[in-house]
Specification:
By secondary structure, the chain is mostly helical. It has five helices and no strands.
Length: about 100
């Protein structure tokens, strides 16, 4: 799949940021499968920025996780600090009523 096809998967199929599929044992969630796909693709700097500044909260979450897992520790603050006060709402857990910024 291409970068944009994986983004489409996130946009249309991700309903939470849980690592595991609800009700299933040992089945990774769509978001984490897409995160793994991005890790295998070795994203460019522009693709990482595309994820981090995307209008979809789950794409942004995937971008933040990508940076968190793959960036050097000394780069984390520079890359993720602009999002500390981000006011975009999303439901990170399966409980869609629990919305966070």
């Amino acid at each position: 799949r291409t970068f944009h096809e994986v983004i489409d998967q996130i946009m249309y199929h991700c309903k939470n940021a849980e690592p595991w599929t609800l009700g299933a044992t040992n089945v990774p969630s769509t978001l984490f499968c897409c995160l793994y796909k991005f890790m295998c693709m070795r994203l460019t700097e522009n693709q990482i920025k595309c994820l981090l500044y995307h209008s979809n909260p789950y794409c942004r979450c995937t971008g933040a996780l990508y940076v968190r897992f793959l960036a050097k520790p000394e780069e984390l603050w520079v890359r993720l600090s602009p999002f500390l006060l981000d006011d975009m709402e999303f439901a990170p857990s399966a409980n869609q009523k629990m919305v966070m910024t």
